[in-house]
């Protein structure tokens, strides 16, 4: 059931209606039932995987807590490792088996056949969420949930099951289980957020996807617009993913449940590290808490740090373990994105830049002092934003291209050829090339609106709060125009699912 389908909208409306008419003490049961109904609509065979992840982490978390109370820390650690192996092992088997076989065949010149495995919906998201919960119980950050069905709701909560955000038990669970009275403001705020999400998705992402797909799928025909292709994809990816977040956060708000924000205007970032603090925020914080800190504080990393201080001095010696931990983190980020070398290159590219920046931090500060740059200058801020955007764009080639080789091919074409008129050869929608200029205009206007909203938000303006203070007819007119624009310009001819739903 696609998030952009009429069936899904009906499903949401029905779930909200039932949620508020039943006794409040069983509201969480309604959410659980609707969550599994939603998941089953994607294929009943997928349920086995989410049930396995749920049951394994639930049983082991309770066992860890009981063993820890008896003072058997080693036994608890063994159970933790078992739980993580089982949970991530399932993810590894279904997502990376064929990738592994392909590489074995390439290295050893074999002809092993791949396995036909269907990738379960949202498996990366609920695997990370349940594994994070398991680690939190082990570290005593939260108490293990004794009710299996309540825990199942935490893992399967349908607004976030397909593309996040990756929730934390300590923040989300209490909201899921507590009673919620009907509040019309929650419905209105949720609808506003959903509307904005669909605008980004159907006006910007879907139309931009038409052009990025055409250019990347046929680089010979569109050799002169490779640069524009990656820019289209950047617009598509941001509008698609952030729009999806707006939709799911808006839906959850209707139940009175506030999900974590996942975006903070990432294209205004001043560094790659800042970009990852703003892009897919919950994935970044998950990596920080469950990968970066454990790696940094590990014994072998401490030894590496001591070696670095002896060899290179204190400053570099302190930075080396942090840089190495960042490389580990972004290797995992790359693997999380998909089973292909291009995603590993994508992750390592970001990791290397962040690690190198950390090692060179003192040098950067000294250079700025010598050049009398305080860092507060407008021109310097614009420089850092543009510089970061260029670095992000380079990584985007690997994310969108079919392979690493294809990515480098597109990069080469981006700097060796520029023939913008080739864009007019891209057929847009059912009307073909005759509609192409209009499609480009729709994308440009949509991006301009997004940009204006983002600039205002960067300056601290709360858009929805500001709109609510306007006269009611004006507020209604704004949202009505937003709704009409989706209906008129969000063509169903190019409608597609959310990109991150595949993870």
What does it look like?
The chain has helices spanning 6-21, 27-41, 47-69, 73-108, 123-138, 148-156, 169-177, 184-217, 226-254, 272-278, 281-296, 299-312, 314-337, 341-359, 361-370, 378-400, 404-416, 436-458, 463-468, 472-489. The chain folds into three domains: 6-182, no CATH class; 185-263 and 415-502, no CATH class; 271-372, no CATH class. The protein has 503 residues and is an all-alpha fold. The two termini are 16 Å apart.
Q: What is the number of helices?
A: 20
User: Helical content, roughly?
Assistant: over 70%
Secondary structure category: mainly alpha
Largest sheet: none
- How many structural domains can be distinguished in the coordinates? 3
User: What is the number of strand segments?
Assistant: 0
Mean pLDDT: 90
H/E element order:
HHHHHHHHHHHHHHHHHHHH
Low-confidence segments, given as residue ranges, are: none
CA-to-CA gap between the ends? 16 Å
What is the overall shape?
A: globular
Query: Strand fraction band?
Result: under 5%
Query: Radius of gyration in whole Å, from Cα?
Result: 24 Å
What key attributes describe this structure?
single chain; 503 residues; mainly alpha; 3 domains; 20 helices
Helix-strand layout with pairing:
Elements lengths: L5 H16 L5 H15 L5 H23 L3 H36 L14 H16 L9 H9 L12 H9 L6 H34 L8 H29 L17 H7 L2 H16 L2 H14 L1 H24 L3 H19 L1 H10 L7 H23 L3 H13 L19 H23 L4 H6 L3 H18 L14
Helix pairs in contact: 1-2, 2-6, 3-4, 3-5, 3-6, 4-5, 6-7, 8-9, 8-18, 8-20, 9-16, 11-13, 12-13, 13-14, 14-16, 16-17
